[in-house]
Amino acid sequence: MTFSRVLTGGSLLALASRCFAVPVVSEATTTFTSIPTATPSQVPNTNVTSHGPYTGTPTTTGALSTDVLAPSVAPLPAEEFKFEYPADGKLHAPEPAPYTPAGGLGTNGTLPVYRPISDFDYESLALALYQEWIELDLFHWGLAKFSVQDFEDAGLTAEDRSLLEFMADQEVGHATLLTNILGAEAPVQCTYNYPVNTVREYIDFCQKLTRFGESGVYGFLNHLDSRESAQLLLQSISTEARQQMIFRQFEGLFPMPVWFEIGIPQSWAWTLLAPYISSCPADQTRLIWQNMPSLNILNQPNPARIDGSDVWNETTGGYTNTLSTEDIKPNEDCLNSNVTGENCSPAITHNRTNPLSYPGRQVFLSWDEPGQAVGPNNSYVSSTSACAPLYAAWVSQLNVTYTPLQNISGNTAFTIQPNMSTFQGDPAVNGTIFLALTDMEVPVTPFNLTMINPHVVALGMYQAG
Ligand SMILES: *[C@@H]1O[C@H](CO)[C@@H](O)[C@H](O)[C@H]1NC(C)=O
Ligand SMILES: *[C@@H]1O[C@H](CO)[C@@H](O)[C@H](O)[C@H]1NC(C)=O
Ligand SMILES: *[C@@H]1O[C@H](CO)[C@@H](O)[C@H](O)[C@H]1NC(C)=O
Ligand SMILES: *[C@@H]1O[C@H](CO)[C@@H](O)[C@H](O)[C@H]1NC(C)=O
Ligand SMILES: *[C@@H]1O[C@H](CO)[C@@H](O)[C@H](O)[C@H]1NC(C)=O
Ligand SMILES: *[C@@H]1O[C@H](CO)[C@@H](O)[C@H](O)[C@H]1NC(C)=O
Ligand SMILES: *[C@@H]1O[C@H](CO)[C@@H](O)[C@H](O)[C@H]1NC(C)=O
Ligand SMILES: *[C@@H]1O[C@H](CO)[C@@H](O)[C@H](O)[C@H]1NC(C)=O
Ligand SMILES: *[C@@H]1O[C@H](CO)[C@@H](O)[C@H](O)[C@H]1NC(C)=O
Ligand SMILES: *[C@@H]1O[C@H](CO)[C@@H](O)[C@H](O)[C@H]1NC(C)=O
Ligand SMILES: *[C@@H]1O[C@H](CO)[C@@H](O)[C@H](O)[C@H]1NC(C)=O
Which residue ranges are recorded for the region named Disordered (predicted)? Predict the structure, then answer.
């Protein structure tokens, strides 16, 4: 009170002159003791020593399930009350307290409870924990697997490697947080199998893995029953979003070529994550989510090339469709160019003279049949409830747009990259996006994207920019 009166009473100049006599302490002269507060311990974790595919026989198969009430969730009309609030900038109810507008969830003084309160919450948070665990391992693994020289050859310095190590440490925190929320049966660390042989393949894989990790959480965050858990998860996924952008910068890409980041359904995140888990401990908590068949982008743009869209069959496999450096000739490699617009060494940002993809680009696709063993201990089975594929669904920013599949022959077809903008000046298809094959054009928007799932035939990631 007194302080604010001083500020309004005198001019800033008067305040400054009154302060003039006060000795200015610009340096701390004494170090006082600062007793640390109690620090919560980390969840048990190890630097996983074994990597590679699973070769055993699964002792259990299929996603976790219980009684299933219907083949899909039926659409319902919007709730009328949501149209009633006038939204005119005026107040329409008494204030519960000063400076406190009426409404909101979890704002009435009840104590927060940071735990799942439904199957939806538990399964979503457990999925997020599987994701944090793979990131923890992946970031450490890269540092252990590749030599200093390998990193230097890709333009990544000792300081960059420290940043990578710090990102791994962040994952310990995220895994600890989610384990504490979930309780005793929380999924634990597994062993993994990564589709990479070089540092640049590794960075591309990290960039794509953090993309579906981040987008996977955005897809369910606002549907969680436990608002309290959502709050904590939001604060961890914001960190993950930064990691994704840093991997783009490590890769020499434009850091954020979109105005909005995508949210995807949980089953999409699980579909893209599970193939890289080789095995989990016997009593591991299993998940409910669907594993969809892989969509392979035959001319997936390759960011390691000067002309990244002029490419054929240059990925290290389906699902994430990450880049392969194997067949790139030195004069085609963007690391070797020092021309602005071509050079792709790690940087805050780069322009690309030759865009990785563009509207009107012909995109060649092939897809796997369902019924394949996938995920930890090969104990999940890929499935689809859709009919034959007819469309490619481009899921980017706030939009889902369908383009027809053409020349469908067996499990191959092509389609044309659509020309659309989210808002004027923001081409929708850019960055690392999601491409799904569907049997119909399901109208969906960010909050009901999951309604597309019964119509998805196959799923992959597309490197649009
Ligand atoms: C894992 O390895 C990193 C070095 O890459 C080290 O800093 C960290 O302490 C190790 N973690 C564990 C749990 O051993
Ligand atoms: C407080 O708000 C919650 C919803 O956020 C509601 O479920 C609960 O009944 C409210 N409690 C009281 C005492 O009004
Ligand atoms: C999965 O494989 C691991 C390693 O072989 C094994 O320890 C574990 O018991 C297996 N889990 C299941 C559910 O079969
Ligand atoms: C892509 O290349 C792999 C080998 O690298 C080969 O097995 C596969 O048949 C090729 N696919 C196409 C569609 O060219
Ligand atoms: C690019 O590299 C060439 C040969 O390596 C050199 O002659 C040229 O000066 C370099 N240009 C720039 C802008 O650094
Ligand atoms: C980079 O791209 C932007 C937008 O396309 C363009 O305005 C800018 O001039 C480019 N900068 C350089 C240095 O090429
Ligand atoms: C994607 O974004 C980059 C960076 O702003 C831009 O140069 C490129 O033209 C965009 N691509 C498309 C297809 O709009
Ligand atoms: C995309 O749409 C814009 C605006 O309608 C148009 O100028 C441009 O030529 C279109 N691009 C292609 C490849 O059709
Ligand atoms: C599509 O199929 C038609 C008829 O078989 C063929 O003439 C055409 O070349 C095909 N187009 C592409 C791009 O493969
Ligand atoms: C993309 O999403 C925005 C925001 O919801 C919407 O206004 C726009 O119409 C959508 N554009 C297309 C082509 O679907
Ligand atoms: C999803 O929501 C949009 C409105 O945002 C609606 O037009 C569409 O029909 C809904 N889709 C389904 C499958 O319910």
Answer: 35-62
